[in-house]
Amino acid sequence: MRHGRLVVVEDDRSSRDALCRLLERYDYEVTGVADGPQLLELVGRQACDLILLDVELPGMNGLEVLTRIRNLTTPQAALPIIMVTCRTDDVDIVKAFELGANDYVTKPIDIPVALARIGTHVAHKRAVERVRESEERYALAVQGANDGLWDWNLATNEVYWSTRWKEMVGCGPGEVGTGLDEWLRRVHPDDLEAVRRGLDAHLATGGGHYESEHRLQHRNGAFRWVLCRGAAVRNTAGAATRLAGSFTDITGAKLADRLTGLPNRLLFVDLLHRALARSRRLHEYRFAVLVLGLDRFTTVSDSLGHDTANRLLMAVAARLQSDGCTGAAADGDRPMALARLGEDEFAALVDVGAPNEAVRAAERLRAALERPFELDGQQIFIAPKVGVALGGTRYVDAEEVLRDATIALNRAKADGGTWCELFDPDMRRLAVARLQLESDLRQAIRTRAFRLHYQPIVSLGTGRITGFEALVRWRHPERGPLSPAEFIAVAEDAGLILPLGSLVLTEACRQMVSWQRCLGSKAPAMISVNVSSLQFADAGFAGDLEAILAKTGLDPKHLKLELTESALPGDVPIAREMLDRIRTLGIRFSLDDFGTGYSSLSYLHQLPIDTLKIDRSFVSRIGFEEHGAVMARAIVALAQSLGMDVVAEGVETEAQLTKLQVLGCEYAQGFYFSRPVEKGEAGRLARAQPWAPVQERLSRGAGSRRSVA
Asked: What is the DSSP letter of 325?
């Protein structure tokens, strides 16, 4: 970077050029001009740091030029100017200083002296500019930040409050004193102790900065949320002498949801408090709280990405506001106060006269979301669920009303056929029981209280047991045996499915190794283990599988993971990447409950799936209605065209077995062969190969037309 920008004013061209070249050697940017008018024109359009101005100039002499520059109304009027004069021009030098010259050098110019003087004045000019810029930046920052400033002199116990701080509490310039109580007496009573404690701790320890979020009362009686920041100045002994900082009004951010702009949970709870207080004053007053959740929103978010999911939430909020709360209201419908509680949950507060009015309000919210949302050229359908709690004097706290509405929402989510639930006390008892079950699950995982049962998978071509499906069972200490349907969903909601799934996988692999060692050639070829969507989506799942295989010693080609359609992300490249990552270990995949979803046919051929399982809902209809056989035939044909195996689930009758063999289904499992059994009984079944009933049918020529590897 150059040392500075200089202008040399000299009418003699050779002297001017020589001086310019000399100064350029010392890393200055130099411009030479011949007379005063040229200099004035240059100063008007080009910035510079210093002027070397010859006194003797033709036409307008140097003193006149100096006078013109100092009379400018622009910042250039303060430019440092060094006069260049002959040794005999003492009178001119005195006059130049009177007119505002900063320094002088004499001809012939002593270069070292000139360089020293030039350097001093350029450095001083730049220092002044930095101070001025710093002051301007500080003033602009204070003005732009819209913060209230305070400065507490601990020696005099006086506090300076900026004009903006006074405005924040609704006061004018002369209406606030200099005591700290001007702040503390305005703090909300619930926040005052924390504010005092924080100040005392900061002054005593001196570490870091003081920071506090609290409510400050405005002159009109309303409380505003503020963020107070400050830091102490200390003397050499470490004692605080001053404490200064700022106040920022964060009411909007504190009470508004940043994504949608709706009131947030904090503000909604405050509105509920007011509604409860009103219901205690006016016994005829009734209100309802509605909590709305978006069913399968997590799946949408995983499929479309975080940014698209956020835009969807913004669109949902806008639709609920415009159509649900006001736009779609019929005569007699009451307005609703809407808020976002978090993630995909919204809440509404509405005055009601009877329970049916609350349900009607819920229907308005639901109707607002019936039309699809258009995002990135794609239509997205939202299925809302609503929980409703009727407010009343039985409630003491606002959170209790919100809790019960949320319980009702969870009940609606759990019941696939219901979109709206009205809270009743039995729901709370069920919710408490669910919490207890969650606690018991945690304990059962710690103590490894789960057991695996195994259901055989039989080849319809040979009658041999080719594998077992591992199914987890839990004997609850008080409730007795529980099926997976009674606790898997709780484990998923509670974040316990990963440790539980790891236990199941480890035990299934260990048992498979044991059978291989004990049964030899009669050992099953494959162990199948169900995998939750949360397990499959976990970034560390592939690593966990590798560790389990290494610990148990199972060859990965003998392990098959069973996934449901809902466990796979809707984005095909993402699903394939996840499957391929695990498949590189040598593990195979089975798609469970096939045919009950909505998307598999469109991307099944793109995914590395080894086996399709015909859902028991289709198998159970075989022999009673044509639909079951039609679906089974279609799935078998699809699998064969894609080079996949087919397993029929839920086979219970010989008629079902016969039809499946005719259709070319390769494998089956169900009560016709065996219920899920403990490991000892499973080993006995494997030793009794082949399966006698299937063998008998094969001997009569009713077997599968396909050979099975």
From this structure: I
- At 622-654, the pLDDT tens digits run 877 777 788 889 889 988 888 999 999 999 998
* CA pair distance 569, 685, nearest whole angstrom: 37
DSSP β-ladder status, 588-594 and 611-614: parallel
Cβ 217 vs Cβ 185: under 8 Å:
no
- Amino acid 69 reads I
Closest CA to 457 of 646, 642, 632, 587: 646
- Count of residues in the chain: 709
Element (H, E) at 498: helix 497-519
Q: Which residues contact 304 (CB under 8 A, 6 or more apart)?
A: 312, 375, 376, 378, 380, 570, 571
Q: For 234-245, write each residue's pLDDT tens digit.
A: 888 888 899 998
For 4-39, give the secondary structure using H, E and C.
EEEEEECCCHHHHHHHHHHHHHCCEEEEEECCHHHH
Give the number of other Cβ atoms within 10 Å of residue 164's Cβ: 17
**Pairwise CA distance, residues 310 & 316, whole Å:** 10
398 sits in which H/E element: helix 398-414
Beta-carbon contacts of residue 548 (< 8 Å; ≥ 6 apart): 502, 505, 506, 509
Cβ(633)–Cβ(654) under 8 Å?
no
> Residue 563 belongs to what H/E stretch?
strand 559-564
* DSSP annotation of 324: I
Residues 7, 42 contacting (CB under 8 angstroms): yes
Distance between CA atoms of 528 and 619, rounded to whole angstroms?
20
Query: Please, which residues have CB within 8 angstroms of residue 278's CB and are 6 or more apart in sequence?
Result: 285
The strand pair at 50-54 and 4-9 is best described as: parallel
Q: Which DSSP symbol is given to 282?
A: -
How many degrees, rounded to 5, is the angle at CA 305 between CA 299 and CA 307? 125
CA distance readout (Å), 556 to 241, 517, 527, 550, 591: 70, 16, 10, 10, 18
| pTM beyond 0.90 | no
